Amino acid sequence: MTTDIKARVTEQTPTRLERIKANTREDHQQIDDLVMAMKPFDSRENYGRFLALQYCFHAVMKPLYHADDLNALIPGLSERSRFDSVCADLGDLGLATPRDHSGTSAPLTGPGRLGWLYVCEGSNLGAAFLLKAAARLDLNDGFGARHLAGHDEGRGKHWRQFVEQLNGLVLNADEEIAVQQGAHDAFGFFHNLVITDRKVAA
Ligand code: HEM
Questions:
Q1: For residues 5-18, b (16+ Cβ closer than 10 Å) or e, as one string?
Q2: What is the pTM of this model?
Q3: 183, 173, 125: which is closest to 149 by C-alpha?
Q4: 123-161 confidence digits (pLDDT tens)
């Protein structure tokens, strides 16, 4: 009887990923609204501004994807970085390497980096929607919108692998909090990029 209750509670307890998602729902909605307000798919010029933000985000994420300790925890992590695809997209569109005006960066040590990775990996899920919209500008996963492409294995499958890897890590209570905070900070970073872009463009 006790075992049954325990099993049910375990089943119902939200996973680490479900908790991060719930804790950052509002952060994501704000980013979604801010990015759509840029009307990124109304013109290639607007898309170029969005791509510049993606460049800045993926550039600060790059050292996390290549960190030895994180790759030991999450095998295959370095292959998930989309930084090179963002650079190729800029090249396709003949755009110069953007400058990051935000003056902030991602942490280079500590468990908070796992939260940042959640945000970056999760953004590839929503990218399915963005890739469809990019077709309006004649952009696709082979030209200009490479970084929005799904993985060859399938977008959902690739994401679920990451979810399993992240959920499988054994973390103490402090580390758990740091992960949640890291996800919040990563959304905050992107938020800051959009706001800074607005100021620079004004
Ligand atoms: C206009 C811009 C955006 C739109 C319309 C959008 C839309 C979406 C959608 C529809 C999903 C759910 C996909 C699914 O469950 O199949 C999603 C997931 C997600 N997006 Fe976005 N997104 C946008 C921008 C971003 C940005 C810039 C970031 C990161 C900085 C981001 C981070 C995430 C994350 C972390 C998830 C995964 C949530 C989870 O299931 O745990 N999104 N997005």
A1: eeeeeeeeeeebbe
A2: 0.93
A3: 125
A4: 999 999 999 999 999 999 999 999 999 999 999 999 999
Ligand 1 binding pocket includes 21 (Cβ within 6 Å): yes
Helix (DSSP H) and strand (DSSP E) numbers for the chain: 9, 0
Residue 103 gets the label, from left (phi > 0), alpha (psi -120 to 50) or beta, of: left
C-alpha of residue 6 to centroid of ligand 1, in Å: 33
Whole-angstrom distance, CA of residue 138 vs CA of residue 39: 16
pLDDT of residue 119: 98
Return the higher-pLDDT residue of 198 and 53: 53
37 lines ligand 1 (CB under 6 A): no
In CATH terms, 39-201 corresponds, of 1.10.10.10, 1.10.3720.10, 1.20.910.10, 3.40.50.1000, to 1.20.910.10
Ligand 1 proximity of 36 Cβ (cutoff 6 Å): yes
144: which strand partners? 140
**Tokens standing for 153?**
């294995």
Question: Is residue 143 helix, strand or coil?
Answer: strand
Distance CA 99, CA 53 (A): 9
Which amino acid, residue 93? L
The CA R_g of the chain, rounded to the nearest whole Å, is 18
